[in-house]
Amino acid sequence: MNPAQEQHPKIRSTAEAQRQRIVAEAVPVFARAGYHATPVTEVAEAAGVSPAYVFRLFPGKLGLFVATVEHCYESVRRALVEGGESTGEAAPDTVLDAMSEAYIQLIGDRDLLMLQVHAQSACDVPEIRQAVRRGLKDIVTTVSETSGADAASVQRFFAYGQLCHLIVQADLSAVDAPWAKTLSDGIRHADDITPKEV
Amino acid sequence: MNPAQEQHPKIRSTAEAQRQRIVAEAVPVFARAGYHATPVTEVAEAAGVSPAYVFRLFPGKLGLFVATVEHCYESVRRALVEGGESTGEAAPDTVLDAMSEAYIQLIGDRDLLMLQVHAQSACDVPEIRQAVRRGLKDIVTTVSETSGADAASVQRFFAYGQLCHLIVQADLSAVDAPWAKTLSDGIRHADDITPKEV
DNA sequence: ACAGTTACTGATTAGTCAGTCACTTAAATA
DNA sequence: TATTTAAGTGACTGACTAATCAGTAACTGT
Q1: A136 CB near a chain B CB, below 8 Å?
Q2: Structural contact between residues A169 and A114, judged by C-beta atoms closer than 8 angstroms
Q3: pLDDT at A65 (0 to 100)
């Protein structure tokens, strides 16, 4: 039921344009509480359309979530490429460092990090697991090729990336204690304006 | 109506004993799909009691989950201590390596790893976030003190620990591709009997 | 002008699940 | 034995939510 729709860009909003818009709006919504804890209604509301229409545009909540996750991975990938290319033709480890820095910058708007985390933890749903694998595959490949670093360095890159996820999830920036500093040292981003919690 | 009882069906246990038993039974149940996607009924069924009784023993589903998460962190902590102490009085990095090995062993029964993951991703619920922080605090402290390693090494330990989580979540052992090997190299556990998926 | 297509919604349904309550049964104690 | 206390459950409810459908409004080509 999806014949050719890309010709000249129409002024009126097409179904495809709405799909993309809704997916973009869905990122922060799903990023808050994840797949299972986020009703489609919330996404619809954020996008300013009726829930019924979301179900018409996507094959169920699952389809919507998968599309959102794919969008998220693609955004992350682009951010990494940009960060890496900003160094020009440098040594592999230098490029990798620049990519790390780019990833740390993403902590700024937590959404992309959190959505990945939620996608990962919903991996018991086969479609989501496959989306996660596809996204990981793209990012691992991109990082490897763009940086030219060896496997061990790439692995280290992802290990510390996952550590970022933990720090964001538990909001360790808000914890003022030695153990929290141990985990987030060097990763902590500049915007530590968050009030202190216990 | 619940045949899953022990030898003497007459004897009753105390509420406290049941609480502990139910928490232990809850670990693998919550480990499958996480907090939001797991109905209390499933836990009750696994423990061989009625859902109503679970609600009587715990302050709501949230209380049950928090108790389960705490139990999980304590198990992990003990496993790490055991692994670390098996080296006797060795150099910090040696102890840390032994702990890493102990953690990798935990991949064997995925449950403890997955429950941590689900707890982390449910951190938008304040009570869960605080439980995660308490658990992390204990483990970071234990690892630091038991190994005597410096902060950077401890941070690295947790970074690769989080990488383990990703590997287990997406079940990368079942993926036979270069990018998957890059991520799981050296972490892959011996039991790679899982059939290959795409 | 009109017919046909496409965007979009209100109303509804069927199912799930957290939590409660009145109740039964078993042990402890007097 | 009688009374009290604690373990444990069936049967409900009220709230929520994924998904559907019949329909209306807006745009398009002819």
Answers
A1: yes
A2: yes
A3: 98
